[in-house]
Amino acid sequence: MADSERVLAGKTALVTGAGRGLGRAFAERLAASGCAVGLHGMREHGPAEYGEGTTLTDAAAEVAEQFGARTVSVLGDLTVREDVERVVATVAEKLGPVDILVHNAGGDIAAAGGKPDPNDAILVKEIDVRAVLERNLLSTILVCQAVATGMQERRLGRIITIGSIAAFRGTGHHAIYATSKAGVVAYTRCLAEQLRDYNVNVNCLAPGDTRTGRFLGTREVPEERLTTAGTLNRIALVDEVARVVDFFAGPLGDFVTGQVLRVDGGSQIWTA
């Protein structure tokens, strides 16, 4: 990206769940726009789990080299307040106060790993209910709280939460995940209202099916949905979703807050 396009030069971004998939792509987009980027992950070797990299440390180094950006990698459990505060403090110490948060970490993941089984609204185990709600909704609240105070004081900031189109459709399958993402949408709007007077924009990006290593590695995908052109009735490419962060984080999003943008090729064409 040319220097004239580095519209976020001098800003510091924190991307959670940044070792692979959409999180890695968000980090790359922000680095290309001029940000210093903190890449968070739960596990150092998380990027290798679906063949999308090696380690979080390597991911940060690769982003730095490719885009000429300052980066730092930091591990932490974002369902634990002390870890959240340490993650934010580490990024601030190494790169500067967080100007842009992309809270991408989450997923439909059971307490013991993998997907909950059963994974419905009635039989899902309580331990998995708590795990999914904490991983998605509680972590969103804790991370947003950790950066919001500083943004209020500086009267400047962008917060981008990552929802899902699952939030807008009743479903017996992955019901708790859908519920948690509906909570993320509601919290995003509440936070946006509270931060309006402080010039802090808060928005939610809600992807549909996206061609990440984890998505492709955890389900059967019909071949016709793997096409890359000629139809919107397909699985999104990672960059088709990630580039929306350019809008929310950059100058085109200056007067946009409290919004939820579904990036799903029109699989849900109805009002939210």
What is the total number of structural domains?
1
Task: Please name the CATH topology.
Answer: Rossmann fold
What percent of the residues sit in helical stretches (DSSP H or I)?
25-40%
Number of helices: 8
* Strand-residue proportion: 5-15%
Biggest sheet overview = 7 strands, parallel
User: Regarding CATH, which class?
Assistant: Alpha Beta
Could you list the spans in which at least 5 consecutive residues all have pLDDT below 50? none
Strand order within the widest beta sheet: 3-2-1-4-5-6-7
**CA distance, first residue to last residue:** 35 Å
The H/E string reads EHEHEHEHEHEHHHE
Radius of gyration based on Cα positions: 18 Å
- Write down how many β-strands occur, each being a DSSP E stretch of 2 or more residues: 7
CATH architecture identity: 3-Layer(aba) Sandwich
Q: What do the pLDDT scores average to?
A: 95
What structural class do helix, strand and pairing data support?
alpha/beta
- Given the C-alpha coordinates, what overall shape results? globular
* Name of the CATH superfamily: NAD(P)-binding Rossmann-like Domain
